[in-house]
């Protein structure tokens, strides 16, 4: 069976799409299927994308090459903020099982499977169409296989270690600003700072280090999980990492750095899974972070957040999606 995954990722838009599509790649691979992985990306993707059959090129422009690669596919997954509706329609017509990853009803999708694993997905009024199947909500969470089976984490009595993670590029240069705030108001905290492959502000970060700060360069998914396990709390962007933190059991303070994250982080906060400090440009952002760190010193409050997160977020979402699309593929029905 031929399967293709089409997505995008670079410094300007971040690498979150690649991360969540990697989880689908892993779930297909677990079933003995090695997908073609097609990325509109940059040199970082060429060097770090740990998949076979990978293609890195601008498939938005070079559509002839794209359709040459995907020709004959049984299943195609498309995860994009940039692709036009016309491309979705064209893909929907040439494959039996098209799968579209969505966050906020970006388009009026053509026939296929629409996946939105965000915790706020069911608040969105998706159109009811006979030729579209919807897989909605965090039971379809796209987390990497390193997070599919996580051992129970013991909560410490005090906050001693804090993780700081802003994706693969930290486009808004938040890491050094947050480090400065922590150095001033929480100088005794041990800080574990994730440096992504696309960071262009490493010099700024290194300039504000203190003796309690550890920089962790370009960690793998297993490395990310290790840091989460070792950290009492985290300050994070509002992407897929908040799902991984919830699965591990690390209470988090989230910052929305992209429009599509806002509903997500607000719902996480409403359900008591983490604290939402605000949009990255919010003038009260750092005051909110300080306030929430002080609040999280209460162990019982952290415990409630962990329980809520592990109640709502499921780690086997990729497997559920692959099970569904493979069953659909094996059936006689299609989305025509």
Compact summary:
The chain has twelve helices and 13 strands. The protein has 336 residues and is of the alpha/beta class.
Describe this structure in words.
This protein has 336 residues and is an alpha/beta fold. The protein folds into 2 domains: 3-145 and 315-330, Rossmann fold; 150-312, Rossmann fold (3-Layer(aba) Sandwich), CATH 3.40.50. It contains 12 helices and 13 strands. It has helices at residues 16-30, 43-48, 63-70, 85-94, 174-185, 202-206, 221-230, 241-248, 262-270, 285-295, 299-312, 317-330, and strands spanning 3-9, 36-41, 54-56, 75-79, 97-101, 112-116, 132-136, 161-165, 190-195, 213-217, 233-237, 252-256, 275-279. It has a 7-stranded parallel sheet, with helices on both faces. A 6-stranded parallel sheet has the order 10-9-8-11-12-13, sandwiched between helices. Helix 1 (16-30) crosses helix 12 (317-330) and helix 8 (241-248) packs across helix 11 (299-312). The protein is globular, with a radius of gyration of 20 Å. It starts with a strand and ends in a 6-residue tail after the last helix. 45% of the residues are buried. The model has no long low-confidence stretch (mean pLDDT 94).
Largest sheet, in brief, is: 7 strands, parallel
Which CATH first-tier class of the largest domain would you pick?
A: Alpha Beta
CATH topology of the largest domain: Rossmann fold
Total domain count: 2
Helix amount: 25-40%
Strand tally is 13
Q: What shape does the CA trace take?
A: globular
């Amino acid at each position: 069976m031929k399967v293709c995954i089409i997505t995008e990722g670079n410094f300007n838009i971040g690498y979150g799409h690649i991360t969540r599509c990697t989880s689908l790649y892993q779930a297909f691979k677990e079933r003995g299927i090695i997908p073609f992985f097609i990325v509109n990306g940059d040199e970082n993707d060429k060097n770090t994308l740990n998949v076979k059959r990978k293609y890195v090129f601008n498939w938005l422009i070079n559509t002839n090459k794209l359709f040459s690669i995907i020709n004959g596919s049984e299943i195609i997954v498309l995860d994009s903020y940039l692709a036009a509706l016309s491309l979705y329609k064209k893909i929907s017509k040439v494959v039996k099982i098209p799968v579209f990853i969505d966050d906020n009803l970006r388009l009026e999708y053509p026939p296929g499977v629409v996946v939105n694993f965000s915790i706020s997905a069911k608040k969105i009024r998706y159109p009811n169409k006979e030729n579209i199947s919807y897989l909605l909500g965090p039971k379809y969470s796209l987390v990497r296989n390193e997070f599919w089976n996580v051992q129970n984490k013991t909560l410490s009595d005090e906050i001693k270690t804090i993780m700081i993670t802003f994706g693969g590029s930290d486009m808004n240069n938040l890491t050094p600003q947050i480090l400065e705030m922590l150095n001033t108001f929480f100088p005794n905290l041990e800080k574990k700072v994730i440096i992504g492959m696309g960071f262009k502000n490493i010099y700024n970060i290194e300039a504000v280090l203190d003796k309690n700060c550890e920089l962790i360069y370009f960690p793998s998914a297993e490395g990310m999980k290790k840091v989460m396990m070792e950290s009492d709390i985290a300050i994070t962007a509002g992407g897929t990492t908040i799902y991984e933190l919830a699965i591990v059991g690390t209470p988090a303070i989230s910052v929305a750095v992209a429009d599509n994250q806002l509903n997500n982080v607000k719902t996480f906060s409403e359900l008591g899974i983490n604290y939402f400090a605000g949009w990255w440009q919010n003038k009260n952002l750092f005051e909110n972070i300080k306030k929430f760190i002080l609040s999280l010193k209460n162990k019982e409050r952290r415990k409630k957040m962990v329980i809520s997160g592990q109640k709502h977020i499921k780690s086997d979402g990729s497997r559920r999606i692959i099970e569904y699309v493979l069953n659909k593929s094996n059936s006689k029905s299609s989305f025509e």
